[in-house]
Amino acid sequence: MVPIRLTEARETLLVTLYGRALDARAAHPVLGDTMAAEAVDAIDFDFRRTHLTPRTAPTVAVRAKFLDGWVREFLREHDGEATVLHLGAGLDSRVWRIDPGPGVTWFDVDFPEVIEIRRALFPERPGYRMIGVSVTDDDWLAQIPTGRPTLAIAEGLSMYLTEEQGLTLLRRITDRFNGGTTIAFDAFNRLAIRTQRTNPAVRMSGATLHWSVDHPRELVRDVPGLRLRDAVDALTAPGAEQLPRGTRVVSSLLRPFPAVRHMSRYLRYER
Ligand SMILES: C[S@@+](CC[C@H](N)C(=O)[O-])C[C@H]1O[C@@H](n2cnc3c(N)ncnc32)[C@H](O)[C@@H]1O
């Protein structure tokens, strides 16, 4: 069994991993990530602490499936010749779900302690590298080759950064990679940050959420060179019909309120 000693933001990866594992074990999975279920079986951790249940787990799987869709679309748009940076990858097996061809170089990036656990759980694969750093470090991007279409994808990461850290990261990515760059991530608004104590990952880990993106277009002002391609409400995005019934009922009742509609969004920018 792989022991886990993670705290705060790092520990939250266990919540999303367990969500995907529960989904994989369901009779009709949304995502069907069997590697997540195998990883959970190999980890020495009391996953009951996540408070996720088979009923609530689809919340995690629906988000992962939506963002997988954007990764596939990017690779299609660039004929499978690209670099993918998966930031705050945690123990997500996205690279195996997407299973990119030989023209893709894929980097999974997370804190060194997290990458150490990844190495113990997941096999190597051609064209795939793991980098153990904080995405807020100033020089790690120098390791990533330039000159090819590049996708930076992050799921469940932006809210753990401060606004300054998030904007600096976006500026560094847009500075390093030129045309053909896409940056895709999910973001919370101010209401989601204010009500963070209701978030299972925050409750379990004691992590603090910081960055809220209330107006996706503002990032275009703050990060030179960025263009907004999509801002999609998670509650009504394609695939949201597979969210847990309770979430769908509450979401349809509260849909008239923009602050609720925009609590969690999928954002896609281009350079
Ligand atoms: C909620 S988990 C999501 C993990 C993964 N994306 C998933 O969906 O399962 C948040 C992840 O962000 C990572 N993270 C938070 N701040 C980070 C930073 N400054 N640098 C690198 N990774 C970070 C954590 O270690 C953790 O793996």
From TrEMBL:
InterPro entries: Ppm1/Ppm2/Tcmp, SAM-dependent_MTases_sf, TcmP-like
UniProt keyword Transit peptide, yes or no: no
Keywords linked to the UniProt accession: Methyltransferase, Transferase
Single Gene Ontology MF annotation: methyltransferase activity
GO BP, one annotated term: methylation
Keyword rRNA processing appears in the UniProt entry: no
Transmembrane segments: none
Pfam families tied to this protein: LCM
PANTHER family assigned to the protein according to its UniProt record, in alphabetical order: S-ADENOSYL-L-METHIONINE-DEPENDENT METHYLTRANSFERASE YKTD-RELATED (PTHR43619), S-ADENOSYL-L-METHIONINE-DEPENDENT METHYLTRANSFERASES SUPERFAMILY PROTEIN (PTHR43619:SF2)
Protein name: Methyltransferase (TIGR00027 family)
Organism of derivation: Catenuloplanes niger
